[in-house]
Design brief:
This protein is mainly α and about 100 residues long. Helix content is about 75%, strand content about 0%.
Length: about 100
């Protein structure tokens, strides 16, 4: 059986990044856009940990991953608060119809 190397992690990370980017660009639902942003951040986390492991960078990749996780949690909380307020005002979470965000 073949050992799992850096290329395998980079492949999984690139697939997650492409799926997240597609969700951000193609979806009209605000919740799905936020989930796409989370996928992109998770792909960055995989890269941080993989490079840290395979290039011998020590714990710096893991610390960067923890920082990204904290920022992702804050982004999710603030993003969901904005979506809930917009739903309360418009009874809709379609990002194409949010005129309030453009002004």
């Amino acid at each position: 059986m073949e050992n799992i190397g850096l290329n395998h992690f980079l492949f999984v990370s690139s697939v997650l990044f492409i799926l997240g980017l597609a969700a951000i660009i193609l979806r009209k639902n605000a919740i799905m856009v936020l989930m796409g942003v989370e996928l992109v951040l998770n792909s960055a986390n995989i890269n941080f940990v993989a490079y840290s492991r395979f290039l011998g960078l020590g714990i710096s990749g893991h610390i960067n991953t923890l920082i990204v996780i904290v920022l992702a949690a804050a982004e999710a909380a603030i993003g969901l608060a904005i979506v809930l307020n917009l739903y309360r005002l418009n009874q809709n979470i379609n990002v194409d119809e949010f005129e309030e965000l453009k002004n």
